[in-house]
Amino acid sequence: MKIAVLGTGYVGLSTGVCLSEIGHNVICIDTDEQKIKSLRQGISPIYEPGLENLLIQNAAAGRLLFTTSHREALNGAEIIIIAVGTPQMEDGGANLSYIVQAAKDIATNLVQSSVVVIKSTVPVGTNDFIKSIIEEHCNESVSFNMVSNPEFLRQGSAVMDTMQADRIIIGSENDEAAKKVQEMYRPLNVPFILTSIRSAEMIKYASNAFLATKISFINEVANLCGVVGADVKDVAKGMGKDKRIGEAFLQPGIGYGGSCFPKDVKALLHTANLNGVHFSLLKETVAINDFQQELLVTKAINRLGDLKGKKVAMLGLAFKPETDDMREAPSIKIARSLTKLGAEVVAYDPVAVDNAKNILGDTIRFASTVREAAVNADAVFIVTEWKEFRLLDLKTLMTTMRRPIVFDGRNCLEEDRIRACKKIEYYPIGRPAIV
Ligand code: NAD
Fold first, then answer.
1. Measured in angstroms, how far is the CA atom of residue 94 from the centroid of ligand 1?
2. Of 34, 68, 84, which is best to mutate to test ligand 1, by the most ligand atoms within 8 angstroms of its C-beta?
3. In this model, does residue 416 exceed pLDDT 90?
4. Which atom of ligand 1 lies closest to the CA of 105?
5. How far is the centre of ligand 1, averaged over its atoms, from the C-alpha of 429 (Å)?
6. How confident is the model at residue 157 (pLDDT cuts 50, 70, 90)?
7. DSSP character at residue 66
8. pLDDT digits over 88-120, tens only?
9. Nearest residue CA, atom 38 of ligand 1?
10. Are domains 2-195 and 294-427 of this chain identical in fold?
11. Which of 231, 255, 371, 373 could form a disulfide with 293 if both were Cys (CB 3.0 to 4.6 A apart)?
């Protein structure tokens, strides 16, 4: 099939590359000339394990092209996938300006009948709205049908998640269009869920809101464990073995971040408010997350007192491991709180430093190794659970720091290793401190 993908971000690029890998002829369009230039040279503008190799192979095989021209990309496309951003607006609602522009770009360049798929995360009713925009601007001789096909990939494992998805949601009011999209994905051999457009749109938000709530729930349990002397690691394990609960998303920490959970939870709340539904559970999910992101700073004040002039080595900047994405990363809030309190922050991350410099460049310093960040530090904050941090050489770390105090926001250090390294003071989340 000939497929056009609008947007070469985390979702669009992963989708385009994987669809070419299963044999389709894919052309990816982006309005960002720099991105297209780098993609044409076989360089992925984002860090995503395994993606660049597949990109190079499929581009070399002639199945994967990149352009800034909507006209070129849409010519002959049987399926057009919209994967542009839907960031958060001030009022919490989703900003649909990119998707509206994408709809106009499609409408004015559509020269044959096609299926228009919205993969971006959009509030209920958006597919209908976008359909009306395309209808308004397109040539009367072309016909098209909409399919809502929300994406569930996780950054850091986008290729695997696309190739081995748990399910593919296809929301449509037109059987032929739904079948066409099923046909596109058929080689993946993944279960399909066929539904209406509005239900498909809602499935995405309800899924993300549920996962965010699960995180906030275990974080509250962790905070209680910390007070009553229980160990959240054992509690989560004991809970997770119950199949009705499941083990995933029961790791306590300093809250969720990233380009999806924060904005999607708020967008769902916004939809609920607009429709007079009081989704109070979701409001608490957000409030708990805000509290959780300040937790390491509170713990540091409790231990070190006034943070003015204290040096904090921040290990990890990306919102999670295996990505360079800094959108809504808890590290941003933590770094800003620390500097506001007069602390000096030196941060290290294996891949996110360049992106972090755009956000925190004026506020903190950056190091190119853990050791460099930790020199003379009064405390280490573990903010992202990169594998490199799990395997830290604790003895060297301890001798590098001014005071060997570690606040582990991801509970990623093993207890035995800390105990073996006698002098470390270790403060995890929801587990007894080791002092
Ligand atoms: P992104 O910001 O990384 O990429 C969006 C891209 O679209 C940018 O490169 C931008 O230049 C391009 N673009 C904007 N307008 C365009 C137009 N008119 N024509 C062509 N290109 C255009 O976004 P993302 O993280 O890939 O997310 C895309 C959507 O998928 C969002 O709705 C998001 O909520 C959803 N989603 C994201 C993830 C994730 O992990 N990032 C997972 C599931 C769903």
1. 13
2. 84
3. yes
4. 18
5. 33
6. very high
7. E
8. 999 999 999 999 999 999 999 999 999 999 999
9. 11
10. yes
11. 255
Task: Give the closest residue (by CA) to ligand 1 atom 4.
Answer: 9
For residue 72, give the amino acid letter: E
Give 28 Cα–ligand 1 centroid separation in angstroms.
12
Q: What is the CATH number of domain 2-195?
A: 3.40.50.720
State whether CATH 3.40.50.10810 applies to domain 203-290: no
The residue-averaged pLDDT of 242-247 equals 98
The pTM score is 0.95
By annotation, the residues acting in catalysis are 260
pLDDT at res. 422: 82
**How do residues 196-223 score in pLDDT, each as one tens digit?**
999 999 999 999 999 999 999 999 999 9
Residue 370 confidence (pLDDT):
96
Q: Is 74 in the pocket of ligand 1 (CB under 6 A)?
A: no
Lookup: tokens for 51: 């993606």
Indicate the CATH number of 294-427 among 1.10.260.40, 2.60.40.740, 3.40.50.720, 3.40.50.960: 3.40.50.720
- Cβ of 11 closer than 6 Å to ligand 1, yes or no, is yes
pLDDT of amino acid 181: 98
Tokens of 265: 């939870």
The residue nearest atom 34 of ligand 1, judged by CA position, is 121
Q: Residue ranges per domain, the chain?
A: 2-195, 203-290, 294-427
Continuous segment of H or E residues that includes residue 284: helix 280-293
If you take atom 28 of ligand 1, which residue's CA is the nearest one?
85
137: left (phi over 0), alpha (psi -120 to 50) or beta: alpha
Point out the ligand 1 atom lying closest to the alpha carbon of residue 6.
20
* Residue 258 in tokens: 């990233």
Distance between CA 169 and CA 23 in Å, rounded?
21
Q: How far is the CA of 364 from the centre of ligand 1 (A)?
A: 28
pLDDT tens digits for 338-351?
Answer: 999 999 999 999 99
CA dihedral 206, 209, 215, 220 (to 10 degrees): -110
Å from CA of 10 to ligand 1 middle: 7
